[in-house]
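Cross-posting from the modeling subforum.

Setting up a comparison between two proteins and wanted a second pair of eyes on the formatting. Protein 1 (sequence, then structure tokens):
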Amino acid sequence: MKSQTDEASSKSAGAELISRDQLAKRWGVSKETIKRREREGLLTPLRFNQRLLRYRMEDIVEIERSLLC
């Protein structure tokens, strides 16, 4: 059985990842707004352990494109 860390590692292989801080700066919002978007199901972070999470850049770009259309 795969652990969450193994699953996150396999999903992120070869993908560019950014932190919550980096995403908040990119979008010009607070970290709390990013957390709220996660709770709403609009963002799905990859969790590497209890405290470490990252977002796949390709997912972020896809969200940005969908908002511009």
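Protein 2 (same layout):
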Amino acid sequence: MSQEVNIDTEFITLGQFLKLADVIQSGGMAKWFLSEHEVFINGEQDQRRGRKLRSGDIIAIPGFGEFRIQ
């Protein structure tokens, strides 16, 4: 079962999401995290910190879990 992450804007970036979902401690860790871990957005691998995530997107990070943007 995926965890829900609520946003109150049209979209957030993957870097912002990682901090919001408590995967990383600070936004500055996003670049490092994405270089060290695989991230899948709607089933496709994507490591771009600036990737826009919108409501309904599903983010899977092996070892960390699956998240759904609400």
